[in-house]
């Protein structure tokens, strides 16, 4: 029987791990298939307090991981596939094995959303991606496009100017949702050409199955045209990772887990942290804060149980 299992190793899960480990609870962190969460695929984080020069997202995650490990957190790459709450403990299925824990912290984060167009799955890795940090360097001196109008789209576009000959930023409206500082940078960058009021209706692969163009439709004039690009970077937001908890923990209509009070879920001993429950802020620092709260609530819960 574990004392604390933490599902997820992004900013929320690792902060929970640091707090739980420092409380001598020796937490087990189930990292899942994308260890490090969204920060591991981002570039410079400029708004995490304490880093006036900014810090690389992956480096921030490495630091948190080391900090948690130093205090006794343990890590496993297992993916959680099922969940079975009991009156005084929780059973959780990680890969094929059922684990038991007194307290569970769900910090499973959110995953990139896709457009749902034809051939999408086949084209991922062949000129279609949701991660500029991972794949941007493969597309040097060729035109690429980014889809979306939020901070992610802005950040990816700016990052891609290091490699691509041209970055088209395709947005369905005529104004960016991104924060003003990011939007101003994008709009001031000559290498980025915004294409407003426009959606992608089709990916066009070449004869080798690699992306060669996208078909665009202007949502006001309904005109369609083809835009040659070597890679499409989709940055249209994220969906919460709740598959293992569906129908068991409460969610809002969009699938985000509902937190009842502080970090508590409806099941005793089960706490929630980070983007899996956050449809508003979705920041590294808010995820870290909620991870801290979840670990402290778990510690309080275990103390009351006398465990
Ligand atoms: P987001 O803020 O939800 O923005 C998603 C964008 O994609 C919106 O512009 C949206 O259009 C567009 N979109 C959504 N579905 C679409 C579809 N089916 N087709 C075409 N366009 C679609 O997501 P995000 O940019 O990933 O950011 C998430 C959170 O992380 C935000 O809170 C953001 O501030 C934060 N973040 C911060 C940083 C930073 O500070 N450096 C970097 C990355 C992310 P509409 O605008 O029309 O809704």
Give a structural overview.
The protein is of the alpha/beta class. The protein folds into 2 domains: 2-111 and 238-305, FAD/NAD(P)-binding domain (3-Layer(bba) Sandwich); 114-234, FAD/NAD(P)-binding domain. 24% of the residues lie in helices and 28% in strands. It is built from 7 helices and 19 strands. It has helices spanning 11-22, 57-70, 120-123, 132-135, 151-160, 180-188, 284-305, and strands spanning 2-7, 28-30, 44-45, 55-56, 74-76, 80-85, 90-94, 97-106, 110-112, 128-129, 143-147, 166-170, 192-195, 198-205, 211-218, 224-228, 231-234, 238-240, 270-272. Strands 1, 2, 5, 6, 7, 8 and 19 form a 7-stranded mixed β-sheet that branches. A 5-stranded parallel β-sheet has the order 10-17-11-12-13. A 3-stranded antiparallel β-sheet has the order 14-15-16, with no helix packed on it. Helix 1 packs parallel to helix 2 (57-70) and helix 1 (11-22) runs parallel beside helix 7 (284-305). It starts with a strand and ends with a helix.
- The total of helices stands at 7
CATH topology descriptor of the largest domain: FAD/NAD(P)-binding domain
Reading off the top of the CATH hierarchy, the class of the largest domain is best stated as Alpha Beta
Q: CATH homologous superfamily name of the largest domain?
A: FAD/NAD(P)-binding domain
CATH architecture annotation of the largest domain? 3-Layer(bba) Sandwich
Decide which structural class fits the backbone.
alpha/beta
Ligand kinds? NADP nicotinamide-adenine-dinucleotide phosphate
Distance between the termini: 11 Å
Helix and strand sequence: EHEEEHEEEEEHEHEHEHEEEEEEEH
How is the biggest beta sheet arranged?
7 strands, mixed
Total strands: 19
* Unreliable sequence segments: none
Strand percentage, roughly?
25-35%
Into how many domains do the coordinates divide? 2
Mean pLDDT: 95
Helix content: 10-25%
Any idea what the shape is?
elongated
- From the alpha carbons, calculate the radius of gyration and give it in angstroms: 21 Å
